[in-house]
Please model this.
Amino acid sequence: MHEYSLAVDLMESVLTTAKENNAKAVNLISVKVGRITHVNPAQLEFCLKSIGDGTIAENASYSFEYIEPEIRCVCGYAGKPNETADDLDMLEYLVSLVCPLCGRNTEVIGGTELVVDSIDID
Model:
């Protein structure tokens, strides 16, 4: 489960930011998850809660927002692909991303992010 190592990094960032702002408690952690990261938000939340036990984030709530893939083509197109995929065939989806204008293979430029978007603290 790669979510655990990702959660460790995210929680470290949250706790460092909270400490820098003299927080007494972390109430809400909002995370943006690129759909191409293959991160399961439920598993990530479980890991974050486990890691947060005994810290000022132990009672935090979590909010997750997906970031959809974006592509760029040599023809100049940049934007969303025409096709969508469910999580089960994301790898097949990635290798089949073609430009909706010219049909060439594309470069993925978005949807791979995993970032703490915001932290609500007291």
Summary: Strands lie at 26-34, 61-67, 70-72, 78-79, 107-110, 114-121. The chain has a mean pLDDT of 90.
